[in-house]
Amino acid sequence: MELTGADLVRAAALLGAGIAMGLGAIGPGVGEGYAAGKACEAIGRRPEEAGLLTRTMLVGQAVSESTGIYSLVVALLLMFVVK
Amino acid sequence: MAIDQLTWIHAASYFGAGVSVGFGAIGAALGEGYTAGQASDILSYRPRMSGEILKTMLVGQAVAETAGIFALVVSMLLMFGELKGHTLLEGWAYVGAGLSAGLSAIGSGIGAGFPAGAACKALARQPSASGQITLNMLIGASITQTPCIFGLVIAFLLMFLDHSAMPYYPYWAAFLGAGLSTGLAAIGPGYGGGLVGSGACLSLARNPEAQRPITTAMLVGIGTTQSTAIYGFLISLILIFKGFPESTSYVPSFALLGAGFAMGFGGIGPGIGEGITGKYALDQVGRVPEEATLLTRTMLVGQAVSESTGIYSLVVALLLVLNA
């Protein structure tokens, strides 16, 4: 099988997309889990503040999610946009 | 120097054997070491309970060893099994099998050590609840073994499937990707499931009366952690069985390999993160059992958000497979 330049670029872009999304998902997953864990701990201590704590947890997790979304965007760009 | 096809397959099977038991030995050893460390730690406070603690430690370590034994079995089969030698694909399948069995044993081995270590501590603190603690330890540690069973299934599928009718391109990459997807994605759920189990054991020691809410919350929490392992397993099955046409360029091969990496790595983070959430939640369920419903709900919301990146990975992996 002949390897052309265009094929090489496309193959590398698709492999890169997979690696980008895969590795990029590790950090947010662990970080958001930690945030949720600490929120559960706090709710156990002050159940009457559950609403406030859940809100804070979700805001924190949303910020932590951002790098996962960057990875998703880069993966989609590599798959569908770059030539 | 010409090397014939059978020699390549032979070499690949030995390489797969090394990869399998090499990676597979990491997890079980770390998990058992952690258990032994916790047992020694608590023995220094309660030397009179040495018999009971030693027994729990050994039972827990035996469960953690399962993951390592699976990897060893795959490695033995790869070394001494019969080679078919129809196509060069067989070699890639053996490498994929080694990766799947080896990598998937890491998380389950480490994970099973957590409930075992926690159970040793919990027993010494609350000897009257020993039956319930041991039961929860066994449930937690065995659910933690699920991801490495997925790895074993994929390894067997790759080893014993008839590849003679499959085109070399892109199947070499599909097999490699299948091994990576299940193998890597199993690391997080194994580790995370163990954390939830350890939280449950320690929580029982604090409040043995809250046995029901603790066990329920543990099963819910541990079940959620396993989800990304299931995604990994799913992507591997798609890669093996979808039936890709013979390709005329290298592009589809690398798309499939990329899918394996995306789902494999992508499964690690959510698994660990959801495990951390479950551990803290379980800790509080033992402390304030009357708020168990609220805590379980918050735990599930938090775990669902943590799951999101795993779902992105699943979507990207599926898009890559469809692109191939």
Automatic annotation (TrEMBL), chain A:
Subcellular location: Cell membrane
Site residues, Reversibly protonated during proton transport: E65
Transmembrane as UniProt keyword: yes
Topology of this chain in the membrane: Multi-pass membrane protein
NCBIfam families in the record: ATP_synt_c (TIGR01260)
Protein family (similarity comment): Belongs to the ATPase C chain family.
UniProt name for this protein: ATP synthase subunit c
Lineage, top ranks: Bacteria, Pseudomonadati, Thermodesulfobacteriota, Syntrophobacteria, Syntrophobacterales
UniProtKB/TrEMBL annotation, chain B:
Transmembrane stretches, start-end: 12-37, 58-80, 92-114, 135-160, 172-205, 217-241, 253-272
Keyword Transferase tagged: no
Gene3D superfamilies reported in the protein's UniProt record: lithium bound rotor ring of v- atpase
Family annotation (InterPro entries): ATP_synth_csu_bac/chlpt (IPR005953), ATP_synth_F0_csu (IPR000454), ATPase_proteolipid_c-like_dom (IPR002379), F/V-ATP_Csub_sf (IPR035921)
Sorted UniProt keywords: ATP synthesis, Cell membrane, CF(0), Hydrogen ion transport, Ion transport, Lipid-binding, Membrane, Transmembrane, Transmembrane helix, Transport
Residue ranges of every copy of the V-ATPase proteolipid subunit C-like domain listed in the record: 15-78, 95-158, 176-239, 257-320
GO CC annotation terms, alphabetical: plasma membrane; proton-transporting ATP synthase complex; proton-transporting two-sector ATPase complex, proton-transporting domain
Locations listed in the record: Cell membrane; Membrane
Superkingdom classification of source: Bacteria
Membrane topology, record value: Multi-pass membrane protein
Function: F(1)F(0) ATP synthase produces ATP from ADP in the presence of a proton or sodium gradient. F-type ATPases consist of two structural domains, F(1) containing the extramembraneous catalytic core and F(0) containing the membrane proton channel, linked together by a central stalk and a peripheral stalk. During catalysis, ATP synthesis in the catalytic domain of F(1) is coupled via a rotary mechanism of the central stalk subunits to proton translocation. Key component of the F(0) channel; it plays a direct role in translocation across the membrane. A homomeric c-ring of between 10-14 subunits forms the central stalk rotor element with the F(1) delta and epsilon subunits.
PANTHER family found in the cross-reference section: V-TYPE PROTON ATPASE PROTEOLIPID SUBUNIT
Family under the similarity heading: Belongs to the V-ATPase proteolipid subunit family.
Protein name, as recorded: ATP synthase subunit c
Annotated source species: Desulfacinum infernum
